[in-house]
Design goal:
The protein has about 240 residues and is mainly α. It has one domain. The protein is built from ten helices and no strands. α4 packs across α7. The protein is globular. The two termini are about 35 Å apart.
Length: about 240
């Protein structure tokens, strides 16, 4: 198992294997996103309290879930880089940060749009909202720190440390609605508990969550492959790969 782990950490081997994943993942994610969005917007019944504004949930909730999961993945890659010095893990950290920032920004914007008809305001310094904003700034911090440092090795270590330190914010996001009084409602959707919503509402939400993850992984793989080509551009195998293109 450990040998397989280190083998996959080779840029050349990862590049070869990931080439088989990216197109199927992208096509499946686009298909599920299209189908899930159409189901949510056209066929899901309006909520008895929120009416048709509840449809924003199908964009916001998957983004909010993925924003946190993306940071966990980035921190995991950062730990691998610091412990085992696997360069591909540093590539993974670099490539996931802009994606995580984008998806967190989407969660914040759609949350504000949803909050206006629900709470009567675009923004409040609510514990869940504020900690999610901190998550966005952590992603931006990783991006800015790498851009500010010239040496790649030093930048990788600094970004990895910052990513690991930022993990402390994730429990705050998750448990903020339980630790403090907040306007944000508790989770109504969980993969480990029976949903509080009827099946005609939570099933398209589940499809959208899976579609978000698939799309995220597809774009992440594409970014990693591009970064590998840039970093390994002087190696023989990259030159050969480019020659047949």
């Amino acid at each position: 198992m450990l040998n397989w782990f280190h083998r996959l950490g080779s840029p050349k081997i990862f590049f070869e294997i990931s080439g088989r994943w990216q197109v199927p993942l992208l096509l499946l994610s686009v298909l599920m996103l299209t189908g899930g969005a159409a189901w949510a917007l056209l066929f899901v019944p309006p909520d008895y309290q929120q009416g048709h504004s509840v449809r924003i949930m199908y964009i916001h909730v998957p983004a909010a879930i993925l924003a946190q999961s993306g940071y966990v993945m980035m921190a995991g890659a950062a730990a691998v880089f610091l412990i085992w010095r696997i360069k591909l893990a540093d590539v993974a950290v670099k490539c996931i940060a802009p994606l995580g920032a984008s998806i967190t920004f989407l969660a914040l914007v759609t949350g504000a749009i949803w909050g206006k008809p629900t709470w009567g305001t675009w923004w409040v310094w609510d514990a869940r909202l504020t900690s999610t904003l901190v998550l966005f700034f952590l992603y931006i911090g990783v991006i800015a720190l790498r851009s500010a440092m010239e040496r790649q090795a030093g930048a990788g270590r600094a970004c990895a440390i910052l990513a690991l330190v930022g993990v402390v914010n994730l429990p705050v996001i998750k448990f903020s609605v339980e630790w403090w009084y907040t306007l944000h409602q508790p989770a109504s959707f969980s993969l480990t508990e029976k949903p509080a919503m009827p099946v005609e509402m939570w099933l398209p939400l589940l499809i959208m969550v899976v579609a978000y993850y698939l799309f995220f992984f597809a774009i992440w793989i594409m970014r990693i492959r591009n970064e590998i080509l840039l970093r390994e551009k002087n190696t023989d195998w990259v030159k050969q790969w480019l020659a047949v293109r």
